Amino acid sequence: MIISGKELSARLKAEMAEQVAGFPAKYGRVPHLVVILVGDDPASVSYVTGKAKASEVVGIRNTTVRKPDTISEEELLALIRELNADDTVDGILVQLPLPKHISEAKVIETIAKEKDVDGFHPLNVAALWQKQPCTVACTPKGIIKLLKEAGVTISGKRAVVIGRSNIVGLPVAKLLLDENATVTIAHSRTVNLPELTRQAEILVVAIGKPRFVTADMVSEGTVVIDVGVNRDPETGKLCGDVDFAAVEPKASVITPVPGGVGPMTICCLMENTIECFLRRQH
Ligand code: GUN
User: Fold this and answer.
1) What pTM was computed for the model?
2) Is ligand 1 within 6 A of the CB of residue 118?
3) How far is CA 138 from the centre of its chain?
4) Which terminal CB of the chain, N or C, has fewer other CB atoms within 10 Å?
5) Does the structure show a pLDDT above 90 at 190?
6) Mean pLDDT for the chain?
7) Residue 212 CA to chain centroid, in angstroms?
8) CA torsion angle for 65, 66, 72, 75 (degrees, to 10)?
9) CA-based Rg of the chain, rounded to a whole angstrom?
10) Are 198 and 218 in contact (CB under 8 A)?
11) Residues 14-51, buried b or exposed e (16+ Cβ, 10 A)?
12) What is the pLDDT of residue 211?
C-alpha cells in the first residue's frame, strides 16, 4: 500500500479551513503566520512558496519576509524580536538552513516559545522529551499522522529511525517511543546497518542521500517512511532516501517522494499555527 500524504493533507487542510472560517466571528481575526526566508536557495524558496499556498487554502494569513543573505545576525534577531512583540503575529518560522555567518541556535532560541510553530525552541524540545504540552515539530508530527491513517499499529513494534537530526530523527524517535514502539536510532557511524534495518517493522529514513535504502535492507512486510527530498543525480528529478521501485514490492506500507511526508509537514505547520493562535486567545 502506498500512502498518499498529498490526499491526507488535502483532507486535513479542508477540515482546518472550515475551523478557521469560524475564527473572525469568534476571535475577530484569523491566525497569522510570518515566514522569514534569508537568501534565495531554490529548495528553500520552493518550501516557503508551499507554505504560503497552504496558508491560503486553510485561510491563514501568511506574510513571507524575504531578506538578502547579507543580512547580519543582529538584524535578523532584531526582526524576530519585533515579530515576538507584535500581537497580530501568531507564528514565526525562519526557513533553514541559514547562511554560515548566522547562528541557527541563536535564531531558534530568539523566537518566542509561544510563536515557535516549528517546535524547534529548546523549551518546546524539552517539553516534548518530558511529555509536557508543547508544539511538536511538523515533519515528525506528520509522520505519526500518516502511520495512524494507514492503520499501522505502532505499539510494541520494532522501529528503526535512520538519521539523528534535531528536525526529524530525534523528535520522530521520541514520538514513536511515546506510541510504545521499541526504537533504535541509526546514523552514519552505525555498524552493519542492513542487519539492523532488516529487523525493523517500521523504518523511518531521514538521512538525505538519494536511494540510500535498497531492497536488501528491508524485510518483507515492513512499513517504510521516506523523509528524503533529494535531486536524482542523473535525472535531476525529486527522489527520496529509499529506492522506491525496489523496496515498494517488499513493503506493506510505503510513502512516495514527492507526495508522501512533504505535504504532511506543511499540513502540520498549518495545524501548529492554529494551535499557537488558539493558545494566545485563551
Ligand atoms: N528546513 C527544512 N525543514 C525545515 C522545517 O521543518 N522548518 C524550517 N524552519 N526549516 C526547514
Assistant:
1) 0.97
2) yes
3) 3
4) C
5) yes
6) 98
7) 20
8) -20
9) 19
10) yes
11) eebeeebeebeeeeeebbbbbbbbbbebeebeebbeeb
12) 97
CB of 116 within 6 A of ligand 1: the answer is no
- More confident position, 282 or 38: 38
Q: Say if CB 51 and CB 117 are below 8 A apart.
A: no
Mean local confidence (pLDDT), 77-104 = 98
**Number of other CB atoms surrounding residue 175 within 10 Å:** 20
Contact 98, 49 (CB under 8 A): no
- The residue whose CA is least distant from atom 3 of ligand 1 is 96
Ligand 1 touching residue 139 (CB < 6 A): yes
Unique residue bearing C-alpha cell 524517535: 173
For 71-75, 142-146, 278-282, which range has the lowest pLDDT when averaged over its residues? 278-282
**C-alpha–C-alpha distance, residues 199 and 34, integer Å:** 42
